[in-house]
Design a protein that fits this description.
Length: about 230
């Protein structure tokens, strides 16, 4: 893992050596694509366009948010900002990295929550836009443009997370793959006909199960808050 982490640090150095305008771009991307935007922006917009798509975005966002926390408890994953000091790497080799206000994230880092949750929750919206484009245009470019934009967004988001030292590249990749797989798998199982009470009950159940799992791991000696 040290070799993987070292490669990630060097990659972050390359990203941070870019022009000043690119720095503003990366920080804007990592801020605007925060998972909370799925619930505050993407869900309302998707619901306004199509109720079923909106519910699917909400449902997948809810499940992926919970699953990301659980996966981090089991996979752990170092954060670059802390690893360079705690591992002793910075004292052995020259490291040229800058800190940003969003750099000091704590807790396990694998997989990336930004990439996983955004990738999962946007999947139904992207597939709906693809179907709409296919219905109104025969152009292959028009049909593929929603998924092209989706891929570019996740790529930019992943690079921005490495840039601000919140994640290593492999954590970003695992987040993107897990998110796309989760979005694809859950879209067909969206409980669109359920009442709002169902979602409230589900959210409560996920919360309680997380607390129970947290207590269980602590009880068996696994410090997930390391």
């Amino acid at each position: 893992m040290d070799a993987l982490h070292t490669t990630g640090i060097r990659f972050a150095e390359v990203l941070q050596s870019g022009p000043p305008w690119l720095e503003k771009f990366w920080i804007s991307v990592t801020s605007l694509a925060d998972p909370k935007c799925i619930f505050t922006v993407c869900f309302p917009l998707a619901y306004f366009l199509d109720r079923k798509v909106g519910v699917s975005v909400l449902w997948i966002g809810l499940v992926s948010e919970w699953l990301n926390v659980v996966l981090k408890w089991f996979l752990f994953g170092e954060r670059p900002f802390w690893w360079v000091h705690e591992s002793g790497f910075a004292s052995k080799e020259l490291v040229v990295l800058r800190q940003f206000p969003v750099s000091c994230e704590t807790g396990p880092g694998d997989p990336s929550g930004h990439c996983m949750i955004t990738g999962a929750a946007l999947w139904p919206l992207v597939t709906a836009l693809t179907a709409l484009a296919s219905k109104h245009s025969r152009s292959l470019v028009a049909k593929l443009s929603p998924f092209g934009a989706y891929a570019l967004l996740l790529l930019a988001l992943g690079l921005s997370r490495v840039f601000v030292l919140a994640h290593f590249p492999h954590q970003v990749v695992s987040g993107i793959l897990a998110g796309a797989a989760l979005g694809w798998g859950l879209q067909a199982h969206t409980p669109a006909a359920r009442t709002p009470g169902f979602f409230v009950a589900t959210a409560l159940a996920l919360l309680l199960s997380s607390l129970a799992l947290h207590s269980l791991l602590i009880a068996v000696g696994i410090d997930i808050d390391w």
